[in-house]
Amino acid sequence: MIDNRFVNPEIIPEADLPLIVLSDFSSGVIQSLIKIRTSGSFSHVMVMHRTGFFASQGNMFSEAKLERYMKEGNRLKFFRIKNLTEEERRALSRKMEADLAAPWWRRWYDYRGIIGFAIGLRWLNSPFRMYCSERVASWLKALSRFNKILPLHPSPEELNKIMKEDTYNFDFYGLWDSDLG
Known about the structure:
By secondary structure, the protein is α+β, with helices and mostly antiparallel strands. The protein has helices spanning 29-38, 86-101, 104-107, 111-118, 132-140, 156-165, and strands at residues 19-23, 44-50, 53-57, 61-65, 75-81, 170-177.
């Protein structure tokens, strides 16, 4: 697979959603530390679940406008879930809506979990809280076909690797890079 198909996220059709999106915002300190710890190219992962919007785990899991991530110094990599049935699409949508509507304390970022990840203790997590890649893995696990292939506490780079290698379940959709327009 060659990762050079460029897309304009502003015109991705609703029919192509949901898409899993990796982000490489290279100027942030936390983002840089995540990339160093994981030896990866990406520090964040989220889901484009409707046109122009991401479901993203920042300090609080919420919906974020596309413009928040289409900024100088960022790169976005999009993956599509292959062979997605309408029943699976509805299951993912229900899971996403439930997560977005959850009480604030269930949507708060798992800072203890990211510290645990940083020091190699992935089991060290706060109950009911997640960091971005845990959130996306949890969302994908709404479909039974992902339960055995996704780790409990993945990094964005681990999800990137899984999606690149698992060509039965995932398809590279495209790349957006601020430097390329």
